Amino acid sequence: MSAHSDFQVSVQAADRLLSMYAELRRTRGLGARGRLNAQNEDLLWLPRSAVVASISALDSYVHAVLNAQIPGVLQNPPVPEPLGKAMARLLSIKDAASFNAAFPTILSGNAVSHLSTRFKDETLSFLSYQSPDKIIAGYALLGYEDIFNEVSAIWPGPRTTPQDLKRVLANYVRRRNQIAHEGDRDHQGHARPMQPKYARDCKEYVETLVSKLNRVVYGI
Asked: How far apart are alpha carbons 83 and 74 in whole angstroms?
């Protein structure tokens, strides 16, 4: 499967969570719409979870693209400066310990594969590609100075400048972090309001963003 097809499977989790929300409203006799009382506010964890699922699917997609593309970039020097700096850190030899760490790569019959695997295991796997600046840094490894400029150029409609697209994503990521790390409560301990529409909008934005990212890199 491709990175994009894997993403499409992952992001469907948001749809399933929102469907569960609608079904549970029906089961509890709450109707399709309307404000929930305190007894039923637990249902709002489903659209909250849908936001987290959408951003996680984006993160996984960017990781998959980088893991797939970096070996090819390394085989076509000169490599982009950010990737070159990352490789230099992997091969930095300052003492016996760093020499021993680099020696398997030096001896390897397929240095590109060895470097790519080390970079994935020692660096990429610990990084998050959710916020705009992190995504920009990730795609810079592939030679894109600011991937949102490329995406904006093929995203029609109003409010699709690079700054617009970054702002929207940053807001969704901020909310995702509030949900995941703060229980989606404000500084006074009150639960932040959540609407299923917000979660649907987040999922649709992420889907469109990934489709544009995919077109920039793969042409499809």
From this structure: 8
Q: Is 80 left (phi over 0), alpha (psi -120 to 50) or beta?
A: beta
Helices (H), 28-79: 45-74
Nearest alpha-carbon partner for 129 in 106, 147, 115: 147
Q: Looking at the whole model, is its pTM more than 0.90? A: yes
User: Residue 135's closest CA among 58, 73, 212?
Assistant: 58
Contact between 32 and 74 under an 8 Å Cβ cutoff? The reply is no
Sequence-ordered alpha helix ranges (H) in the chain:
3-27, 45-74, 81-91, 96-107, 111-122, 132-140, 147-153, 162-182, 196-218
Work out the number of other CB atoms within 10 angstroms of the CB of residue 20: 15
Which residue type, as a one-letter code, is found at position 170? Answer: A
pLDDT recorded at residue 25: 95
Counting as low any pLDDT under 70, the low residues of the chain are: 103, 106-109
Count of residues in the chain: 220
Which residue do the tokens 């995702």 mark? 176
Domains of the chain by residue range: 3-68+128-218
